């Protein structure tokens, strides 16, 4: 196991290196090892923070229920 793996939070619900709540953050070092990605130990806290941010956005979108009779948006105009 890489040295980066020893820096990742081990227990859910304990504040990580960046001081945020890691309850919903997957073990970043384990995911990186599975896909063959090397994350330097100095970068791991920021990667964990970004993963938590993205997980929050994913939870937000996943919790947004659309009714079955909702019309699709065929054209988007900002």
UniProtKB/TrEMBL annotation:
Species the sequence originates in: Komagataeibacter saccharivorans
Ranges annotated as biased composition (Low complexity): 1-18
Region annotation Disordered: where it falls in the sequence: 1-25
Name of the protein in its database record: Uncharacterized protein
Top-level taxonomic group: Bacteria
């Amino acid at each position: 196991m890489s040295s980066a793996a020893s820096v990742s939070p081990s227990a859910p619900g304990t504040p990580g290196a960046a001081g945020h709540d890691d309850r919903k953050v997957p073990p970043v070092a384990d995911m990186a090892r599975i896909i063959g990605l090397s994350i330097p130990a100095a970068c791991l806290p920021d990667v964990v923070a970004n993963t938590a941010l993205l997980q929050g956005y994913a939870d937000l979108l996943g919790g947004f229920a659309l009714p079955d009779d909702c019309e699709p948006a065929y054209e988007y105009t900002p």
